[in-house]
């Protein structure tokens, strides 16, 4: 015979005993969303329902291991740090100054980095992080099932890192704009303290409406500040919130620390055709033809290189991934046969590409991952953009936000938008960028190379435009 049920302890309709226990532990009346009852089958959860971020965080905290004498994480340096960076490799390069500052301030901390796809291979074996884990390739749905997958991935990270206190002391999310779903949930489940930009600031042209509710997953909210600030410099606000300082030398070629002897050897092997049978002379220019967006693909690279070679006698190394082979073949066919060239398209992993860029005198291409790799090793850049002069400074393509940050770099763009566009290029194909003349690009490349030649030492201090009005100081050239 069973006794009377205690109020609040019995499972509600459609709720399991385990769910009832979790609800009681959190002291709430309705932890689980109401189930949809289908008379023709068993009870099921709506696919789009999920826990509120606040309840998810409280549940994660209630299930953490009980450890005696847990220190105040704001008073002592963290021993284990989780950084989640789920966007592109160029964004990862702009996180290097923050990682450098964290390593200097917390030399004993074990740092685990989570990235998507092959982006993390550039960090493996280096001194900035101790472990690299790949973010799941399959996107998680914004549902209760997706939250469960976040929880499972966090447990996988903890089993791999085995932090002494049961969870990471600190999780850092350095992405300023909209995160992939799950990043903050994983951080909240895996770490006692989560530092990230306030999701409520991620609104407008560079954010995503709807993520502001996830601020309950973050313990240390950081104000994003001026939206026109270069992405590279936004890490300084996050560093200040963590109590670390990004010093000027942290911006000085941080990517060189990622290149090992084998990477330099692979780069020398790829460049060897330029030295046989007789060494070719002249500055080495790394050319990247592809662009993250079709509107940023400029058709005039070959003609611009021909003009620069006629004046300075340059050498060329062509960069790109396996999908860029046709672009590379078309470029070589258009190039003057007298230009010494070697193609690394589809042949260079990320760290080898980094070594090739470090060996180059200049990068020529669009604003994208390859450009940020070049900036990370202090190689000057001439970046061709589709963003018109005087365009919207808060746009995703605005050079003041995502342009080159190595010294002596220049940005070349159209003087005015093409027909159908106003303060930014909205086309799905090369449109505004076709207004950039080859003579202007060639002249800009030559000017940068001649400037480097006239000085025996190339300065490497970063030159990052802080606002749109500084774009001209950063070398924005127009026809």
Automatic annotation (TrEMBL):
SUPFAM superfamilies: UDP-Glycosyltransferase/glycogen phosphorylase. Residues 1-21 are annotated as: Disordered. PANTHER family: TETRAACYLDISACCHARIDE 4'-KINASE-RELATED. Keywords: Glycosyltransferase, Transferase. The lineage of its organism: Bacteria, Bacillati, Actinomycetota, Actinomycetes, Kineosporiales. Residues 9-19 have a biased composition (Polar residues). Gene3D superfamilies: Glycogen Phosphorylase B (3.40.50.2000). This is ADP-heptose:LPS heptosyltransferase. It comes from the Bacteria. Pfam families: Glyco_transf_9. InterPro entries: Glyco_trans_9 (IPR002201), LPS_LOS_Heptosyltrfase (IPR051199).
């Amino acid at each position: 015979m069973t006794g009377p049920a205690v109020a609040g302890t019995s499972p509600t309709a459609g709720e399991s005993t385990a769910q009832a226990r979790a609800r009681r532990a959190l002291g709430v009346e309705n932890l689980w969303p109401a189930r949809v009852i289908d008379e023709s089958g068993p009870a099921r959860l709506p696919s789009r329902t999920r826990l509120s971020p606040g309840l998810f965080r409280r549940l994660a905290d209630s299930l953490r291991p009980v450890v005696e004498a847990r220190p105040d994480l704001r008073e002592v340096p963290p021993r284990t740090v989780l950084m989640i960076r789920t966007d592109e490799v160029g964004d990862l390069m702009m996180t290097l100054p923050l990682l450098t500052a964290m390593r200097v301030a917390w030399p004993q901390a074990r740092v685990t980095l989570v990235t998507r796809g092959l982006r993390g291979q550039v960090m493996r074996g280096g001194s900035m992080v101790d472990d690299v884990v790949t973010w799941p390739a399959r996107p998680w749905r914004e549902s209760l099932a997706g939250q469960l997958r976040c929880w499972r991935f966090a447990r996988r990270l903890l089993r791999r890192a085995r932090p002494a206190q049961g969870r990471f002391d600190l999780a850092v999310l350095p992405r300023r704009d909209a995160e992939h779903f799950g990043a903050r949930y994983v951080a909240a489940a895996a770490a006692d303290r989560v530092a990230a930009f306030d999701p409520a600031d991620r609104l407008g042209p560079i954010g995503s409406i709807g993520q502001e509710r996830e601020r309950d997953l973050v313990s240390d909210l950081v104000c994003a500040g001026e939206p026109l600030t270069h992405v590279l410099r936004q890490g300084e606000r996050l560093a200040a919130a963590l109590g670390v300082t990004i010093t000027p030398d942290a911006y000085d070629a941080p990517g060189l620390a990622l290149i090992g002897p084998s990477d330099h050897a692979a780069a020398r092997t790829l460049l060897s055709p330029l030295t046989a049978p007789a060494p070719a002379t002249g500055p080495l220019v790394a050319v990247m033809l592809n662009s993250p967006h079709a509107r940023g693909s400029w058709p005039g690279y070959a003609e611009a290189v021909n003009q620069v070679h006629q004046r300075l006698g340059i050498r060329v190394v062509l960069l790109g991934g396996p999908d860029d082979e046709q672009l590379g073949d078309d470029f070589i066919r258009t190039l003057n046969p007298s230009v010494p060239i070697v193609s690394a398209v589809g042949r260079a992993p990320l760290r080898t590409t980094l070594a090739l860029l470090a060996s180059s005198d200049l990068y020529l291409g669009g604003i994208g991952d390859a450009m940020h790799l070049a900036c990370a090793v202090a190689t000057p850049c001439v970046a061709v953009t589709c963003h018109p002069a005087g365009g919207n400074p808060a746009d995703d393509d605005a050079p003041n936000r995502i342009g080159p940050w190595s010294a002596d770099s220049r940005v070349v763009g159209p003087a005015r938008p093409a027909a159908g566009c106003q303060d930014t290029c909205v086309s799905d194909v090369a449109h505004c960028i076709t207004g950039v003349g080859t003579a202007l690009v060639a002249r800009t490349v030559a000017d940068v190379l001649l400037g480097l030649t006239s000085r025996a030492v190339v300065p490497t201090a970063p030159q990052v435009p802080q606002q749109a009005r500084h774009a001209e100081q950063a070398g924005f050239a127009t026809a």
